[in-house]
Amino acid sequence: MKAKLIITDLKSGLYWHEKEAEFGSLDCVHQVNIFPNIRRQKFYGFGGAFTEAAARGWRQLPENRAKSFLDSYFGAHGLGYTLGRVPIGSSDFSAGHYSCADSADEMKSTFKTNTDDEYLIPMILAAGETADRPIGLLLSPWSPPGFMKDTGERNNGGKLMAEYKPHWAACMAKYAAHYRKAGCDVRLMSVQNEPEAVQIWDSCIWTAEEEGEFAANYLAPALSEADCADIGILAWDHNKESLVRRAEGTLSVSGASEAVRGFALHWYTGDHFDSLRAARKLWPDKELWFTEGCVEYGRFGGMSDIDKAEMYAHDILGNLNAGICGSIDWNLLLDAKGGPNHAGNFCEAPIMLTEDGGDFVLKSEYYYIGHFSRFIRPGAVCLATSSWSPNAEVTAFENTDGSRVLTALNRTDSPITLSVTEGGDNAITFELSAHAVATILLF
Fold first, then answer.
1. What is the C-alpha to C-alpha distance for residues 259 and 215, in angstroms, rounded to an integer?
2. Are 247 and 279 in contact (CB under 8 A)?
3. Burial (0-12, 13-18, 19+ Cβ within 10 Å), 207
4. DSSP state string for 255-311
């Protein structure tokens, strides 16, 4: 068996530095174990969100740099992304509001997909050509059209009025069918983005029971009617700490257990990895998807580049070990200000445009994500591990070709010597520098 060691040490200027790893005697003091026979969840891949902000940024790049951008995410030597998330209608990362219809009368004769057709779908199809495979998509609404809500507007929360439930479900299904007709691979749909958040931008409030009832009685039938019955429905699509409470409420509704494939999670209120573990134990047949996280400038703008990268790696590691089956980052690309964003809710993306908008830069987060996404491929299975110290955060997977991957993160101020073994007396021993990340590929 051969082994390759890939290291990123931002302080030393090393990015995805590769070298052959050698097997030697086991240092039990600093031991990390991989247990290939203890197999956990199947993993479907990594990706990012095709927002209007990302698509507009991509469109303004010169042709050669636009191609390089797609290669950076979806190419064989980039992050190897295979998944994406797409807002149904406008989100905060849109130039303004848009939806499938602006009035009840218009809804009867019109289904508008102008922004999708001009910006989002061309970028998605180009990404699929770069990846040499269709990008698996999750569609998520931020709000129904304002006329369908009790507030009459997309912003500031509000609720979908009961009489519009069948109409909104039909619209969501039409979005899925439209994207599929255009050649996109729609696999999942969430009921609502952040259904407990009243935001100054596009938002809508749903109780857990309302999500279950809508999924079972309206959305699942509408998807079937649109010849999209194979699309999996996800509930919650919000922060991890409330997962168990929301899942209990959603699945208590008659028919919801059959209609809801799983639950989607965000990171904005902390780790809460144990919440994911609890959900995996309570509902082992349900999928858990990480569907949004980013460096919000309003909260994390003052962090160092290393801190931002470590925040990403720590969350990915914890999520993978706790049972997620897919990981989708937020915006694929933003301008130098962190937008465009019609609500002024500026954030950072792993790739950002330069000030003049004519080129892009790779942020520290980009390289840390790559330690997972480049080597843990679709279809991989999570393996059990044990580590000598909490200072070494580790996760391991086996790919469909039999290769095995272990990624280790050191967020401390001191180097750590690790001996990685699958049993027996042989191990790969290496030093992981302070504030560095490493991946071992066994093949």
1. 6
2. yes
3. middle
4. THHHHEEEEEEE-TT---HHHHHHHHHH-TTSEEEEEE--EEHHHHTTS-HHHHHHH
Order of strands, sheet of 381-387, starting from the edge strand that comes earlier in the sequence: 14-21, 3-9, 436-442, 404-410, 392-398, 381-387, 31-42, 416-421, 426-432, 23-25
CA 127 to chain centre: 16
pTM of the model: 0.97
Calculate the alpha carbon distances from 161 to 111, 149, 195, 229, 328 in Å.
20, 5, 15, 25, 30
Rounded CA gap, 309 and 297, in Å?
Answer: 14
Which residue from 144, 163, 245, 264 is spatially nearest to 204, judged by alpha carbons?
144
- Whether the CB-CB separation of 275 and 241 falls below 8 Å is answered with yes
Rounded CA gap, 428 and 3, in Å? 8
Residue 135 DSSP label: P
DSSP 218: I
Q: What's the pLDDT tens digit per position in 205-257?
A: 999 999 999 999 999 999 999 999 999 999 999 999 999 999 999 999 999 99
CA 103 from centre of chain:
33
Q: Are strands 31-42 and 416-421 parallel, antiparallel or unpaired?
A: parallel
- List the end-to-end C-alpha distance of the chain, in Å, as a whole number: 6
Question: Residue 5: helix, strand or coil by DSSP?
Answer: strand
The span from the CA of 220 to the CA of 230, in Å, is 10
pLDDT for 136-187, tens place per residue? 999 999 999 999 999 999 999 999 999 999 999 999 999 999 999 999 999 9
* Summary count for the chain: helices (H), strands (E): 14, 22
The one-character DSSP state at 147 is G
